[in-house]
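Sample intake sheet
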Amino acid sequence: MTATAPGPQESPGLLEVRDLCVTFASDRGTARVVHNLSYSVSHGETLAIIGESGSGKTISSRALMGLLPAAARVTGSIRLNGQELVGLPEHEMRRYRGRDVAMVFQDPARSLNPTMKIGEQVTEAIRLHAKIAKRQARQQAVDLLGQVRLPSPERRFHEYPHQLSGGMRQRVMIAIALAAGPKLLIADEATTALDVTTQAQIMDLLLDLQAQYRMSLILISHDMGLAASYAQTVLVMYAGQAVERAPVRELFASVRMPYTKVLLNAVPRLDLPPHSPLPVVSLRAPDLTRPAPGCPFAPRCPRRADDCTEKDPVLEEHENQHSWACLHPEEPAEQEQETTVQEVVQ
């Protein structure tokens, strides 16, 4: 894997998310899928949002795009370049979607139209945001396919999605996302379905395009190794809430939230004997329709104390821009050894 991306430029924040809440009504009650989520992304910064399935990371990213179903209730604030997106009518949101913020989804096979040729889909994305002739848009589409390093872009332009490999289809999705030159690109588990070699190629491509287009990048993943390799800042989510946030090197050198430590310990290590079992966390994730008082991780936490089920921990910033939401955090002296970024990405 590559080295960590260059640090963010010194400039005002591009994205400001404050007290974001997303709820869904169901037969079992109201599900609190995202709760009081706050974070920011600077111009040129790469933020990794990490968490297990159901942690709310994908729902929160779809809220940025205005792509949640009508049943979702969104409150709080999402400001992109100073523009408030929460509550924006759909016809106005279309102006920002693609041009200011774009998204690469996990499964390109489901995101691409199987009945349309690759070139037609990229051309359509270009003309959606630019009033240019079809011939000019077609040439731009071929150029974009070349920029995302799709082999033989002129030939692929006339092929259908099923004729391409998974990695090639993901490159096409990246080309579509870049069609309007967005300021913020969200990659939602964009490499999960790919083999390790192709994953690294796609991530290297995203970082190169990020520098070329001067974009900010949000990586949505459950993979701590990916965060260690490519992000500058890591935000860990559990049960719809942010539970730890820090610059990447600070986080892996001094994990404070027990849940983050569980995720980190689940990363396979080359220095362990073959067939070594990975640590697991007991019990299931909490029922989001019936949130219990106290820390949501308390029932599964090896460090829980009596007050963990009574008091709600708040995400507070401490030294080295490191924030955590835990009443009894891990202490650096208690950790078996300092975990470095290099060890995580081995």
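Comment: The longest strand covers residues 13-26. Confidence is low (pLDDT under 50) at residues 1-11.
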